[in-house]
Amino acid sequence: MKNYFTVLELTADASDDDVRRAYRRLVKVYHPDVSADESSQERFIEIKEAYDYLVDPARRRRHAAYHKRELSGYYSQPAQDAAYKAWAEREAMKAYVRMKRKQQQEEEEAFKNSPLYKILQGANFVYNVLFLLFCVAVVSIPIYRYTHQDDIPEDQRQSFIVFLIPIVLGLFFAFAGYYYLFVIKTDEK
Q1: Under a CB-based contact definition with an 8 Å cutoff, are residues 22 and 46 in contact?
Q2: What are the b/e assignments for 165-181, b being 16+ CB within 10 Å?
Q3: I need a surface site. Which of 4, 52, 150, 168 has the fewest CB within 10 A?
């Protein structure tokens, strides 16, 4: 198990500046363009890996805490290495999830700026307006027909309940549509 502090020749309480200084100092010595030694390239890769890991303050604190504390319950080096490997894998998975989430947000933003999104938003608006107009028609037509039954003989007139059912359904759908449009969709945005 690599101790990145040892790779950069630092102690576990190193600061950001210490990490950067150690990295610059070691790169000047082990960079493949500078050093003729064949093992310098492997050492340079190891130094770069350690720097990339320790430059993040949160990771550096966790790494330092891991190397400072006694791992109670672990009696052998392989068990300690397995525990650290599991921790490192969890950290890598968290980083991957954060990266995927950020990538997904960027894709969503790019889609929201596309012409297709604007067309879909317009179509959605037209659909919502048509739905509300339909609900208004379902409510107003029975009211109109009921109020204009004077021309029809009394024995052919329909009862009020026949007109009441579409009015109630129209009001229900109008309220549900309004609630969906202006409450639920507004909360989603």
Answers
A1: no
A2: ebbeebeebbeeeeeeb
A3: 150
